[in-house]
Amino acid sequence: MHSQNEMQSQKKYNRTFSVEFFPPKTPEGRDKLRAVREALAPLNPSYFSVTFGAGGSTQSGTYETIKDIIAAGFQGAPHLSCIGSTRDGISATLQQYVDLGVKRIVALRGDLPSGMGGIAGELRYANELVQFIRKHSGDHFHIEVAAYPEFHPQARSALEDLENFKRKVQAGANSAITQYFYNADAYYRFVDSCETMGLDIPIVPGIMPITNFTQLARFSDACGAEIPQWIRRRLQAFGDDMESIRAFGFDVTLVLCRNLLENGAPGLHFYSMNRDQPTAKLWQSLGLS
Fold this sequence. Notes:
Layout: H1 8-11, E1 16-21, H2 27-40, E2 47-50, H3 59-71, E3 76-81, H4 87-100, E4 104-108, H5 126-137, E5 142-147, H6 158-170, E6 175-180, H7 184-196, E7 203-207, H8 213-223, H9 229-237, H10 242-262, E8 267-271, H11 277-285
């Protein structure tokens, strides 16, 4: 099990608690997200991050959402992908964010949109994107990268995935946010491996509240996040009883968050799915506000 001398690298950092949104596609969605953000505002998160569509298809949606967040007086951290992008395009986007007052960027490779085949863009990997941002904007941005405690579904091996992570850190990443997980040991082992490799940046656990089993199972199968068998079977047993699913899902996630914070995790990053209730409830129960 987890011993006390582990996680030393993580305990010295100031904790950041953040919330992730995806850009709404319709005016109604924008109004709804604004209401969600206003409901989460009293929690005073370190920042709100905003994702983008496959192949950068909603980069403008990301920009507009970030603009709203900054106008409301919060830090916004846009996701930036290099898939399907040119160096000129990325330069222009970075400049827009500098002008907007953005201080933090989540730099990702991004998903290859179906049918794009070999057209990956001029930068192929997240470490190349991190390097490019540093060259373009120096130390203006705090750069977040992704980490996969259960390893990236497309990595050929666990070792290859750790090497990829190492390249991102060496290229100039300031901190990392993990894919969500429900098995804390996977995270502790990942941090351990990073410490062994001499990598020393905050690795913030990504937390996915459990509110809808079907949706969660679909996501998890797609992104390679494991739902432990005992959790999966419990959730299946509730059938359509959404209230029981939410209550059980809340308990499981709360215990996970407590465990992570007690063992020295440098914060938590909540995947809100553009809803305020599940994140706010966990946040308040953990006494973070």
